[in-house]
Amino acid sequence: xxxxxxxxxxxxxxxxxxxxxxxxxxxxxxxxxxxxxxxxxxxxxxxxxxxxxxxxxxxxxxxxxxxxxxxxxxxxxxxxxxxxxxxxxxxxxxxxxxxxxxxxxxxxxxxxxxxxxxxxxxxxxxxxxxxxxxxxxxxxxxxxxxxxxxxxxxxxxxxxxxxxxxxxxxxxxxxxxxxxxxxxxxxxxxxxxxxxxxxxxxxxxxxxxxxxxxxxxxxxxxxxxxxxxxxxxxxxxxxxxxxxxxxxxxxxxxxxxxxxxxxxxxxxxxxxxxxxxxxxxxxxxxxxxxxxxxxxxxxx
Length: 300
Ligand code: 13P
Ligand code: SF4
Hints:
Elements: H1 2-15, E1 17-22, H2 27-32, E2 35-37, H3 39-48, E3 53-57, H4 60-69, E4 74-76, H5 92-101, E5 106-110, H6 115-118, E6 123-125, H7 130-135, E7 143-146, H8 149-159, E8 164-165, H9 171-174, H10 178-187, E9 192-195, H11 201-204, E10 209-210, H12 213-222, E11 227-231, H13 236-243, E12 248-251, H14 266-275, H15 284-299
Parallel strand pairs: 1-2, 1-3, 3-4, 5-6, 5-7, 7-8, 9-10, 9-11, 11-12
Bound molecules: 1,3-dihydroxyacetonephosphate and iron/sulfur cluster (SF4).
């Protein structure tokens, strides 16, 4: 393990690489990263970092976003089969068919979509800025918010604005049941309950806060509270505990695992740096179209 970390360190220096990691990857991967964050923070970092090589530790749509925003960099994705099942629930051809059938509708795509699908939408959002993005759209215009029906319904309820829902969801976050939340609330009456807005509206309605992963990390850091029930993927507990050793974090259920996030390992990071592969490559015409909705989001 020490050897592997040393190997990564040597290769990182030699390649002048920057390692970006999502809050859900394994703790040992987070620990060797230059920057760990949520989807929005990582997109901004990828745009601003200006490194010849970016190693993206997360699922594929995140690495694609890094490539779209940093087209001159070599973007390495150490586990090319680490996809996001929710992103695959909005197929590019189906989204284009929807657009043709609803020419007046503004199509908002959660950043958890493939680059191929982003090429057919108007604007992107993440869980951290979904409300801001929706608020920037003319209230008179119909909106389709895809692919996450849970995030869409949660944001729609908060803003009291109707949006059309796509039948997508995150299998990891959809697994949490309101009964589980009620039981955990009874068991830990003093804990604050934080969930991700990819959870169902019935779960979100029982929570104290529904926040992006970056939002949750900020919230627990700034809160005077000492005990928290956490309703999102378990990888986030690593940073929570590391940054707040005097506070207690309890997962609401052992079921919230995203197997794709765990496909990034120290071994495949070292291999990727050594071989400068596997890379994210996107056809230039597709990249140009897919970049537009992300840049529109970042310009808000
Ligand atoms: P964040 O944007 O909150 O990091 O979430 C990304 C994600 O994939 C949640 O499942
Ligand atoms: Fe996709 Fe859910 Fe995994 Fe996030 S946790 S990457 S939405 S499957």
